[in-house]
Known about the structure:
Blueprint: H1 8-19, H2 33-41, H3 46-53, H4 65-73, E1 82-86, H5 92-101, E2 106-111, E3 125-128, H6 134-144, E4 147-152, H7 158-168, E5 172-180, H8 201-212, E6 230-236, E7 239-244
Parallel strand pairs: 1-2, 1-4, 2-3, 4-5
Antiparallel strand pairs: 5-7, 6-7
Bound molecules: S-adenosylmethionine.
Amino acid sequence: MRFRTLPYRILSRLRRSDVFPGFNESFFTGPSITDHLRDTYGYEGDLAQIFAQGSPQLIHKWHHYLPIYDRYFSPWRNRPLRFLEIGVSQGGSLSMWRRYFGPQATIFGIDIDPACAAYDGIAGQVRIGSQADPAFLAAVVAEMGGIDIVLDDGSHRMDHIRASFRTLFPQVQPGGLYFVEDLHTAYLPTYGGGYRASANFFNFARDMVDDMHRWYHRKSSTTADLGTMCTGIHIHDSICVFDRNPTLPPVQSRVQAT
Ligand SMILES: C[S@@+](CC[C@H](N)C(=O)[O-])C[C@H]1O[C@@H](n2cnc3c(N)ncnc32)[C@H](O)[C@@H]1O
């Protein structure tokens, strides 16, 4: 039977299984989240307890993200960090970040859903608007007085992720981080992605790699020079982390003791 002659319901299921072979969408049902984090990922840091304790506002995170968050975010704890999360949903992650980063942190969340305004002032400030709106993002950054870390957990649409990145990455202070999560969506046509599709966000990351290495080729920038502001790109399962720092021409020495 030819693929396109199958009923749409089955066709869409086949496409889904093509995209996510072996993907487990069900929630963890074990007795202890902290035991699972320790036994599976060797992770026993504070964030495991903070996440497992929960908060009155619901939070939803993949377990393997927690040690990755801690790896990149731990140097910023108990400091006057300026942290922006794209995607507030039910406010739980803002509560988690407040407990993790401490009282000195300026924590803002943005969401397109006006209902999220209900979480404003609980763990951080919430502003309503689209992550794809440069003027809105600029106003939020101005209100924050600058920005050290962006965490994109918003629409997960490829065009939105890129639009936010183009606006916000240059605004991140040198030494800061830009963290994009749930990038399994990069493989989903529903989100504008697809396996090796041109809009798959990992292709944009690849363009950043080329711009970081501009000393070694003659091609012009494909990222409007964003790659020149980035000294490291770290790819994990469904997560991409960008180090915000200017790239500098490489310098070398030859040293020999006399
Ligand atoms: C995955 S949820 C966020 C979950 C939350 N960060 C947490 O961990 O609990 C995604 C959120 O992104 C919001 N969203 C969707 N499109 C958006 C857009 N264009 N701009 C900003 N937020 C958007 C949705 O309303 C939704 O609340």
